[in-house]
Amino acid sequence: GMNAAVRAVVRMGIYVKAKVYFIYEGYQGMVDGGDNIVEVSWESVSSILQVGGTVIGSARCKSFRTREGRLQAASNLVQRGITNLCVIGGDGSLTGANLFREEWSGLLEELAQKGMIDKEAVKKYAYLNIVGMVGSIDNDFCGTDMTIGTDSALHRIIEVVDAIMTTAQSHQRTFVLEVMGRHCGYLALVSALACGADWVFIPEYPPEEGWEDSMCVKLSENRARKKRLNIIIVAEGAIDCHNQPITSEKVKELVVQRLGFDTRVTILGHVQRGGTPSAFDRILASRMGVEAVLALLEATPATPACVVSLSGNQSVRLPLMECVQMTQEVQKAMDEGRFVEAVRLRGRSFENNLNTYKLLSHKKSDAELPKTNFNVAVLNVGAPAAGMNAAVRAAVRVGITEGHKMFAVIDGFEGFARGKIKEISWGDVGGWTGQGGSILGTKRTLPAKYLEKIADQMRTNNINALMVIGGFEAYLGLLELSAAREKYDEFCVPMVMVPATVSNNVPGSDFSIGADTALNTITDTCDRIKQSASGTKRRVFIIETMGGYCGYLANMGALAAGADAAYIFEEQFDIRELQANVEHLTEKMKTSIQRGLVLRNENCNENYTTDFIYQLYSEEGKGVFDCRKNVLGHMQQGGAPSPFDRNFGTKISAKAMQWISKKLKETYRKGKVFANTDDSVCLLGMRRRNLVFQPVAELKTETDFVHRIPKEQWWLKLRPLMKILAKYKTSYDVSDSGQLEHVAMHTPKEAETGTI
């Protein structure tokens, strides 16, 4: 994802009429100067979006740690008039940058004394501004929810786990997987959540005394329950409560000695740093790169050096040293054995992951479970979306832990009416997280024409609450069921919806389960399509994406794949705009650029069809480029769910289930559940930074029912970003850019609102 950040900084810099330089090989290049510091143009960063690693290189630099080294670096920058630095790296690189900034005026004075620069230069270049972006696969930097590269590393880990699962299942093996993370257990924890691992070892949360016994008991219980596969994930920095290392070899020996299971160790190593960046990382890095340039433009000598970062779904700016200090606090807490504190310092997202993992991985014995005598039904509604199964698994397991009897409904509302409903147990949902599509089966049918039959089924099976996982149809379905409460008492129960649709068109939530997987599919396909044209003459591809009337996939796909234009329904366009786009592409093709990419949402305009746009571009581009078209179709709904969707589905669904338990307690009177208020039919959505429960009745005013989209959509603010990165002259609305905030130490109370 670093290249996406580099590209965004260069293009946004040029857009604001700045000169932009590359410094190759990290601080080493800054100290060495010469050819390592080069002015760059628009084309310099063409076609680097899909490349892993970084095109400008990176190096650990001993000389920059000395004052002489920094003096040399300052001299090299002043010669070129550079006073704004954008640093992409981990906490070491960022701390170094901050020190450099603090010493800057002293360094210039010294250079002037030595006669290397004149007094004028000292005045002219008196201040150095610094903005940091955190590139680190460990996600070990406090203050930011996700660092650049973390999501791609999770993709690599999950690909390996999915592959190992098939072989381990055939052979009844136990696998011990070692993942990166010397001081931070984020990768281990999230991949354990995403693949339903049996046990995880992380530095922040060492196992209790006697963990060897409990782990072996758990592994053998799983075998006894006919689970053919055990997966144990170990972070390379894992420790026990006496601060002694727990290695993957040690875990393997333990399993072999105590249980005699056939056990294998796989150390993932540097595979995790490689490969092509995920869609999430490209979009994250592009957003951060643009934000970094804005932060540099607004920086003054008085403002502290800042990092641009992501909180929930929002760009924020945080003082660099506050983040670094807090990151160091975590390490200190771990060294001193204050592990509860360490987890809290890691932030809300980490804490939520840990709590969810604890909830879902350990099945309590029947004697330990509370008995509530409530029956809760789970169903999928709408088109299939990757991650639905992870959500069902989390709902079932949390429900059982809370003491309810869980029921699964097959084939949505239609299956419900036909009585396709059965009790589902803890073991039934094992191994579901990595499965694509919908195992329960899903239909688009709405409940209105089956109300009587569904009410009968609710009565027969004594269903006290409903959890619906699905897209826009699920939302409509809940509206219909709540409207039918006057006629049928059976529907007077708590109902909650968890949004799952590739289109991401559900009101009340910025994200839905399945959209990230679809976005990765689109991005991968666009990469391949672009590659297919390398070496041929100039070519433009017109690609049609799904999404109904919602332009999310087309717009974000365009941002992640580096497209030249994205046509969407939400932003009306006419023939003049089409013509301008064609001319713009023609101009671009006259430079060194060989390939163009245009995305079109399937319903963006009934007359300007994909064929029409293809024919228009073909005709107008004659002699300059030729055209090809692709309709991506249903491949966007398939595939194994991405780490983000597994994780999001798991966490949001667990939270929804806890809400159901709370509502059941509140509405249970005189031996029965009776809930007929608006706030007992809710949609759980991600809004900016928090997960919020919103009554579906209140969301009605926010919905365009004709086109099945929310009236206001957050991602439309990213439209100008895509245009700037594709070299259009457009105005960028800065009102949403982050103001400098402070690193908030969240209180335990706040942790309940939850961040993904």
Topology:
Layout: H1 2-15, E1 21-23, H2 26-32, E2 37-39, H3 67-79, E3 84-89, H4 91-113, H5 119-124, E4 129-134, H6 150-171, E5 174-179, H7 186-195, E6 199-201, H8 211-224, E7 230-235, H9 248-259, E8 263-267, H10 279-298, E9 306-311, E10 314-319, H11 320-335, H12 339-346, H13 348-361, E11 375-381, H14 388-401, E12 405-409, H15 412-417, E13 421-423, E14 442-443, H16 451-460, E15 465-470, H17 472-483, E16 495-499, H18 515-532, E17 539-545, H19 552-561, E18 565-567, H20 575-589, E19 595-601, H21 610-620, E20 626-631, H22 643-667, E21 668-669, E22 672-673, E23 681-687, E24 690-695, H23 696-699, E25 703-704, E26 709-710, H24 719-725, H25 748-751
Helix pairs in contact: 1-10, 2-3, 3-4, 4-11, 6-7, 7-13, 7-22, 10-19, 11-12, 12-13, 14-22, 18-19
Pathway: Carbohydrate degradation; glycolysis; D-glyceraldehyde 3-phosphate and glycerone phosphate from D-glucose: step 3/4
Cofactor: Mg(2+)
Domain Phosphofructokinase: 1-295, 375-660
Describe it for me?
This protein has 756 residues and is an alpha/beta fold. It folds into 4 domains: 1-147 and 277-332, Rossmann fold (3-Layer(aba) Sandwich), CATH 3.40.50.450; 150-273, Rossmann fold; 366-513 and 641-704, Rossmann fold (3-Layer(aba) Sandwich); 516-637, Phosphofructokinase domain (Rossmann fold), CATH 3.40.50.460. Helices cover 42% and strands 16% of the residues. The strands form 7 sheets. Strands 11, 12, 13, 14, 15, 16, 23 and 24 form an 8-stranded mixed sheet that branches. Helix 14 links the parallel strand 11 (375-381) and strand 12. Helix 7 packs across helix 22 and helix 12 (339-346) packs across helix 13 (348-361). It is globular and about 90 Å long. It holds the Pfam family PFK. Keywords: Acetylation, Allosteric enzyme, ATP-binding, Cytoplasm, Glycolysis, Glycoprotein, Kinase, Magnesium, Metal-binding, Nucleotide-binding, Phosphoprotein, Transferase.
